[in-house]
Amino acid sequence: MEKLVMCLHRRPDAVYRLICFPWAGGGAFHFAQWSSLFNSSIEVYSLRFPGRESRVKDPCAQDMTTLVSDIVSSLLKELQEKPFAFFGHSFGSYVSFATAVHLKEKYGLQPVHLFMSGAYAPHSKSRPSVPPLKDVSDEELFSWINSLGGVPPEWLQREDAVKLLIPPVRTDLEVFQTFVCAEPKNVLSCDLTCFDGSEDLTHDLEEWKDVTSGETTIHELPGGHFFLLEPSNETFIIDYITKCIENADF
């Protein structure tokens, strides 16, 4: 578990866990910092996918099944211990959703709440088509991602960061491209919340209602694709997540 999870503030007496899934090419550090912003009832786990940060030598997952298996095999014991919720941004939304479905189908477990951020529903026909990754240069791929608003601000300021992050981004996009959810009708029963930026692409968030029989809520916050990095939005999201988790039925 230590390879997969970054947890900056261990809280063994916490009542709940929040598991955070990063965006394409992203690491664990940003969401790990959230742990200091939540109260003592919630312990935050931020996931580190293979091929980045301290797992840079681990082979990247080539498909969603492999990635979900890596997560579940490492976290199953912890997920069985106490109620948990998932938060995913962009690519992380799809990984968190796929993980939730796998847990319910195989182990009868599911989050008390799913929080999706900046993402189309997995079955949406509006999901963008990824360019042929084998035929696209790093520069072309970066430009394509940037055209969708999917480049974190720090990338634009550091050329060295782009060189380091493009390889895991390529792999994450391959996972995204091959992930198919053809029949999502009520595959889950937990409540679900979607967050989106007012200046981001339109993500047809209403379609997320198809994936669960629980209540679906939508919040639009000011900003582009990385609206969640704005301090005021981050505060809203963390306060909202706390209320939802603490009031969840389980």
Automatic annotation (TrEMBL):
Keywords: Fatty acid biosynthesis, Fatty acid metabolism, Hydrolase, Lipid biosynthesis, Lipid metabolism. It catalyses: (9Z)-octadecenoyl-[ACP] + H2O = (9Z)-octadecenoate + holo-[ACP] + H(+). Residues 17-242 form the Thioesterase domain. One of its GO terms (biological process) is medium-chain fatty acid biosynthetic process. It comes from the Eukaryota. One of its GO terms (molecular function) is fatty acyl-[ACP] hydrolase activity. It is an enzyme of class 3 (hydrolase). Belongs to the thioesterase family. This is S-acyl fatty acid synthase thioesterase, medium chain.
